[in-house]
Structure formats: structure tokens, C-alpha cells
Amino acid sequence: MTRARQLAPTVAIWLVLLTMPMWIGAIGGYTELASRVVVMALAAMALNFLLGYTGTLSFGHAAYFGLGAYGAGMTLKYLVPSTALGMVVGVVAGTLAAALLGALIVRLRGVYFAMVTIAFGQVFYFISFRWNSVTGGDDGLTGWQRQPLAWGPLRLDIQAHDSAFYYLALACFAVSVAAMALLVASPFGRTLQAIRENERRARFVGIAVERHIWLSFVISCAFVSLAGTLYALLNNFTDPRALRWDMSGNFVIMAVLGGMRSFWGPLVGAAVFVVLQDYVSSHTENWMSIVGLIFVLVVLFFPRGILGLIQRRAS
Amino acid sequence: MAQLILFNVFNGLIIGAFYALMALGLSLIVNLSGVINFAHGGFLALGAYLAYSLMPLFGFWGGLVVAPLLTAAIGLVVERVLIRRVYGRDPLYSLLLTFGLAYILEDVTRYIWGAQSLPYPIPAALARPLSTQFFFLTGYRLFMVALVAAAVGGLFFVLGRTRLGMRIRAGTLDLETVSALGVNVRVLRNLNFGLGIYLAGLAGVLAAGMLGLQPTIGTSLIMPSFVAIIVGGLGSLPGTLLGGLLIGVASGLTTVFAPSASEAVIYAMMGVVLLVRPRGLLGEEGRLK
């Protein structure tokens, strides 16, 4: 009975995700919006691996998201028209950058860690913005398209069918989320949570704190760059805004809005945020104020997020 | 060539002075209250636009005096109503709060004054080049450097010689003891925030005269200010000043040789500093944790 009750929310979430393209049109959405929810949810959950389970705040995850996006887009445009290869290149680029920069920042803590992650995030923004001939500069990277997936006799035409792309994104999401769930439950994940709860104690027990935070940072960024590749493929386009600081802020607010201490929180937060942003930006020019207001209200009144609120009611 | 280098170094120095002015305000707030004020750029823009609107009333000079004060007053209210609520909480919340505030300020600025850029007229006496050979030495640029120097001097005087300044410095080291000694810490943090915002407003008015008015004027200046703080050293105001000037000049020099790398170079500098001296050039030991 208790096991069934524990599993019920997870089953419900997967049922909703698996059927989303079938009913989202009926409630005023569209398939691309569903894909965007899944992609952003992956990014927010990846960020939360670091934020919620390691207790380390990165405000610069858009950089690795954007590296994934540009890695995929540029591979498809300049190298080979292969979606799969584009994704591999994007993830490798984002992960490598995170491994290098992560090594520089793991010694910092708290506000300063956040500040340095923000600042380093901007490097890639300026590179994509200024390196016109390769990245397309401010206009973005255009002139390429995601290609149908073919694997032996199997063919998935993600180019022609939006819903096919949705299920590709969902498959990536599922694999990543499963991997993160396993990691969280593993001894490594438990160690990260120990660091989150009391860093000094963890250090005294002999845990190599810096190395664990670095690893957590790199893993988190790897999944964020995967989300970035999907984002570029979804839009058949990417521009410098994909890796600007406001995107990083959006990831953080999604995680907090949904509830960063619950595994599925960032998914809920991403769904609410993406749908709201889509709705608000099509109805008013002053969507920035509305989004800003969401930030302020969440901080002042819902610091535990939606799921945190529900869990508290339930207990 | 020598003249080109000189021109760009001077240009970098001016930009660096902006960064320093912004970064000093940010530094003041983060040192005493532990809040990274993401909305600092929004306040800068507010200062610039207020000066623009006040110009018909008070003229250029009046605007220069009144607009930063008005911005600081708005800052005091914002601290009282919003920022105060996140003191002592996880830095995550102060970042998110000021992040949202930055969105709102930029949008409100755009709503009131419009999205298109506006010209900000400066007195003719200041706009003239002072020398034909060094065409870039306009009166306004020299005036800006002098004013920033005066503002920084004034700030260090306030911090070093006045009672408020001493309390701010003491609070930065040990807020609890300062509170136990009978200082009203709420008021202290409030005034300190206002002081930081005053510097942002002042930087805004000066920037308006040089770059013109755009709602996004603050956002482009805030990231380098973060870099200035990190390069200069966490917790050290002289370090912040040095960091700002240093990255300004570095960015100016890079413009001569590789214009498209002029923004990226400051982040490279930050990387080098973090690698060889993680606490920053003049940073104190132990401030990282």
C-alpha cells in the first residue's frame, strides 16, 4: 500500500508526459510548447542536481546550455547533417567547458561561487555575439535543420513531425532523469547530500569535498548541455540569448518555483514557468515585469516551491 | 600607433571608472549584507533616466546632483520593503529577488521612457575637444574622470572618517558585535544600501552623457562590475577600485589589437586571477568561505 502510494505520483507524471502531445492542443497549447516544457524541465532538473542535492548555487548554467545548442547547430551546419552527432558534439563541448571552468571555481562558496559562475557564463555569450562569421552573431545561427534519425532499418522522422521530436526529447529526458535518480540514490549522491547538509563535517570525515562538488558540477552541466542541444534542434535555430545570464536565472527560478528539495520539483516549475511565459509574452509587451514579479513573489511567499507546499500540507 | 594606444588606454580608463563606481556600490552591499544586488544595473538606468527627465527643471548640473539622490531614495525604499526580507537567508533567495527586481526595473524604465535610445545633451563647454592632437580628450571625459575620482575620494572619506562609515566597516567585519554595542543594524544596512545605490545612480548620469540613454544601459555594465570585484579581491574596496580600472584598461588595450575580444578579455583575466590567486589581487584571506 505505501509502496503503491509512493509510486503513484511518478506513474502519474510519466502518464502525463507520455500523452502530452495528444491533449495539449485541446487545452490551447501546441506540440512545440510541450517539447519546450520537456527540454526546460531537463535543464532545470540538471541544475537541481547541483543546487538541490549538492547545495551549490550556479547562476551560470546557461553557458553550458548554450554551448550544447551551438555545438549541435554548428555541427549540423558546417560538419555533417547528422542529428545524433550534433548532440554528441554539443554535450562534449558543454561538459569539457564545465570541467575546465569548474576546476577554477570549486574553491569558492556561497555568493562568490554564484558570482563567478555568472561572470564566466558571459564569456560564451560574448563569443557567440561577436564571432559573427561563425556563429551568426546577434542574428543567431540559421541555415540548418534537424535531420531525421536513422538507425539501421529504424527511422524516426523528427524533421517532419513535431510529435516525433517530442518523443525524442522525452526519451532523452527519461534517460537523463533515470541516471540522475540513480546517482542521487548512490553512495556518491549520498555524499553530495552530506556535503550539502554540513560541509565542515563532511570534510572532517575525510570526504574530498572539492572533488565531489566539481564532479557534481560537471555532471549537472553535461545534462544541461544535452538540454541545450535539444533546444537548438527544437527551434532549428539558436542565438546568443540561449546562453545569456537571464537564461541561467530562468533555470534557477524553475527549480525553486517547483521545489528544489523534491526530485520532480523542477519539472513542475519548468512546466508552470514555460507555459506562463508563453501565455504572458503573447498577451502583453510588459512580460518582463510579470516574470520579474514571479521571481519576487516566489522568494517572498513560496521559497519551498509548489511541491514543497503540497508536501507540507500533506504531512 | 602610439596615439591609438593612448586613446584606447584612456578610453579604457573611463570605462573602468564606470565599472569601479558600479562595483564599489555592489561591494559595499555584498560586504555588509551578503546580498549580490543584481538590480544594480537597473538602478543605474533609473539614475540616468531621472537625470534626463529632470534636465528641463534643473539643467545638466542640477540633474547631476539631484538624480543620484533620488535614485538612492528609491533604493532606501526598496531595501526597506523587499531586500531586508532576504537577509540571513540562503544567498539563492537574494539573488533571485534582485534578479526579478532587475527585470522589473528594466521593464518599467522601458514603459515610462520608451525602448528607443534617447540623446542626453551635455553642456557645450564640456563637449569640446581640448587639444587638436589628442582629439579624444574632450572636456566631458576629463570631467568624468575627475568626478569619479572625487566620488571615490568622498566614499573613502565617509568610510574612513565619519561615524556611519566606521560602523559600516565594523559591521562588515562582525555585524553581531556591532549590533550588541547598540548600533541599529537595520538602519545601518538600509543606509549602506542607499549609499551603494547612490553610486549606481551617479554612474548612470555620467554614462548617459557618454553612451546615450537605453533601457539596457545598466545590464551591459553590471557583469564587468562582478569581474572587477572578483579580480580586485573579495571584501576589499580598494581592490574593487583597482579591479575596475584594471579591466577597463585591459579591455581598452585589447580593442587596439583584437576588437572583437575586448569583452572576453576581462573574463580571461578573471580566470587567471582565480587560478593563481583565488582571493583576488587585494582580497583578504578567508573571505572565500
Explain briefly what this protein structure is:
With 315 residues, chain A is mostly helical.
Major β-sheet profile of chain A:
2 strands, antiparallel
| Counted beta strands of chain B | 0
Separation, N- and C-terminal Cα atoms of chain A: 17 Å
- Total helices of chain B: the number is 11
Order of helices and strands of chain B: HHHHHHHHHHH
**Roughly how many Å apart are the termini of chain B?**
46 Å
| Beta-strand proportion of chain A | under 5%
Cα Rg of chain A: 19 Å
Radius of gyration of chain B: 19 Å
Give the quaternary arrangement of the chains: heterodimer
Describe the structure.
The complex is a heterodimer of chains A (315) and B (289). Chain A starts with a helix and ends with a helix. The model of chain A has no long low-confidence stretch (mean pLDDT 91). Chain A is built from 14 helices and two strands, in the order ααααααββαααααααα. Chain A is mostly helical and 315 residues long. In chain A, helix 11 (245-258) packs across helix 12 (265-283). Chain A has one domain. The radius of gyration of chain A is 19 Å and the shape is globular. Helix content of chain A is 76%, strand content 2%. Chain B is built from eleven helices and no strands. Chain B has helices at residues 2-33, 40-81, 91-113, 124-127, 139-161, 163-173, 175-180, 185-211, 219-232, 237-257, 264-276. In chain B, helix 9 (219-232) packs parallel to helix 11 (264-276). Chain B starts with a helix and ends in a 13-residue tail after the last helix. At the A-B interface, helix 4, helix 5, helix 11 and helix 13 of A face helix 3, helix 9 and helix 11 of B.
What topology does this entry show?
The complex is a heterodimer of chains A (315) and B (289).
Chain A lengths: L1 H22 L7 H24 L7 H18 L3 H23 L4 H21 L1 H4 L13 E3 L2 E3 L5 H24 L1 H11 L1 H6 L4 H27 L9 H14 L6 H19 L3 H15 L3 H10 L1
Antiparallel strand pairs in A: 1-2
Chain B lengths: L1 H32 L6 H42 L9 H23 L10 H4 L11 H23 L1 H11 L1 H6 L4 H27 L7 H14 L4 H21 L6 H13 L13
Helix pairs in contact in B: 1-5, 1-8, 1-9, 1-10, 2-3, 2-8, 5-6, 5-8, 6-8, 9-10, 9-11, 10-11
